């Protein structure tokens, strides 16, 4: 039986869990692939850090780049997680040395995936990154293999468990963003530095990977419509609830007239829609394609367990199969795609406008809507008499993004305004 | 570029759709696999049947077994759909001739999958059957590859679009089973001979395939708990609705103390549960495993489009990869598994008992429950004064299947009974 030498670079939560999976599932891997794996090298910042298991000193490398000089490796796991720096260097060096690479690193793939995949193809090795999007959902393999000849025109979903947990929990516990975030950090559902989760950046990286695979295009480098959930208030969640809507941070990518429209923002969806009922740390991905129709996958998005499940599926794919194109088709055939002009996006929306409650305010606000050709579907005014303030909630009919942009510019100059209006798009999903 | 010769046996709805996909997606297949396909043989009962396209007479074989004598074939699609007969003969002969086989035929695989997979392995070719379970959902590939090293302990779902459409539509349109079925047949959502859909047999075949893949076991030949939806009345759907429950035909398979418990029956699930909201012709599969947690997939279950999508994914898997074990591991390692004694199944349940409304009836009915140690949680009595009849609906606390069996035997002998009681299990899902 052929022996396959494995290197694991990075021993954080994921690297640790993975090592345990590799060690406990050797027999299962042998049965399923006919190949024997052996851990040949491990790299982490600190060999002495307290861990559940002892690291064999003979396998340990402080500098991961030494591995390439001193060991014969067949497959390398990169689990450091940087978009550049040592992560990129390790993956690059491995591929150039004809070593297969497996990584859960979405930041790296979203930024350098085009370059790294062509490097892998040139060196005739695999570059696998199933774990980079929605760990517990084998969505990349499904697009590349399970739905291989479908024509996909839209892919969207809940791709960040932290944000979905916070939004769900605010509704459930009737508590503020700040308190729920603090609690999520205690429970391990949010990182200590959650910035890239909350501002939508993490979701966008996943959207970029999903688009490339779904539409057979290069990773888009263009600026996208990107908004996070930092400014969502409990108030908005409550009002949404009354309107039979729910706020979800969605990552959405679609082809419109062969133009790519990628965006990430918190939006309002119907409470009884499928996506409106994906709560807590769950992730979900929905695909629209032909002939498949609508296809839905849901599962845990992050955490060492689901992530390791994806890493192991990559490993078995490499052990079992031939060389595969990292993005499903040869790099040279992945085309650039023009960007859809987001100003032409048409949707209805929710605005919450906090104002001083004086005479003339309503007419002044509604005038701004009329000026920008945005027609109002519902208007709810909640006076706060004690403080002589009022909260005006407006649901609009469908209008263009550019009109909303102008409206917000106008409103921000309005003399009655107490604070910046809250603007949330309504997705017809 | 290597040319791969394809045979398609069976030109019903699926065979037809597939041929069109094969013809229109040749270029896509070349790009993704580096191989060129060519249709080398087609077999159908009647060459002259009216079709959207003309069949090249040089490719046509009335008897599919002639194909093996007269053409060099690499991959054969079997789309006849019998559990035995010519379907089995064609697949068997192909495998023996070292031809890869792709089939959507769940009846064939559920009955002869063990034999055919070992035949494929012996001849070093692939036997792929992704389309046999939930066509639009690549669930088999997901179990074998995407979740390859997970330990799965439960798999269940809505696996028959016809039944799910009928149950959903009865609730939606407030119409009888009979009328909804007739309408479903008109719309093409039910076959003219829907017996094997309605009695749960089709779902059971899919459950057997899912179990084998999930638990790495031989296909179970044991008798299962199998009930269809033929006896579900509009009345039950309405009462369920009031109780915040919904009736779904589920196929369920789980390992309990390393014993296999497979069953198919209509059951009551919470209306707000995920599975309670999968309506219409949609299929859904839910897996519980480690480390994956809960994983959900939803999509169109049948129809030529989704089925062809699965057939094409099998084709690309063969074109791209090495020889794979049809059930994920070598046939020789797939173990037999003992059957869980279904009499020990514990659940609460719904009973609707139609009786003559005379004094003493309620005491007589409830006595039967007490005798069988089944405790009653709710009881709703609806008198039909005009006809001197009454409908007694009882929700029970959890009890053993064997107690329910005895209860039903007792009730059937009850002198006040107007007709056989309706018994529906409640699934805690």
Outline the low-pLDDT stretches of chain A: none
Largest sheet of chain A: 12 strands, mixed
| Largest interface summary | A-B, 51 and 52 residues
- Average pLDDT of chain A, rounded to a whole number, is 95
* Computed CA radius of gyration of chain A, to the nearest angstrom: 24 Å
Portion in beta strands of chain A = 25-35%
> Could you tell me how far the N terminus lies from the C terminus of chain A, measured between alpha carbons in angstroms?
51 Å
The number of E-state strands of chain A comes to 18
CATH fold topology of the largest domain in chain A: Dihydrodipicolinate Reductase, domain 2
Note the total helix count of chain A. Answer: 14
Quick take:
Two copies of one chain form a homodimer. With 429 residues, the first copy, chain A, is of the alpha/beta class.
Task: Give a description of the structure.
The structure is a homodimer of 429-residue chains. In chain A, helix 5 packs parallel to helix 10 and helix 7 crosses helix 8. Chain A is α/β, with parallel strands linked by helices and 429 residues long. The mean pLDDT of chain A is 95. In chain A, strands 7, 8, 9, 10, 11, 12, 13, 14, 15, 16, 17 and 18 form a twelve-stranded mixed sheet that branches. Chain A has a six-stranded parallel sheet with strand order 3-2-1-4-5-6, sandwiched between helices. The termini of chain A are far apart. Chain A has three domains: 3-132, Rossmann fold; 139-301 and 326-339, Dihydrodipicolinate Reductase, domain 2 (2-Layer Sandwich); 343-426, Alpha-Beta Plaits, CATH 3.30.70. Chain A has 14 helices and 18 strands. At the A-B interface, helix 2, helix 6, strand 12 and helix 12 of A face helix 2, helix 6, strand 12 and helix 12 of B. Strand 12 (293-300) of chain A pairs antiparallel with strand 12 (293-300) of chain B, so a sheet runs across the interface.
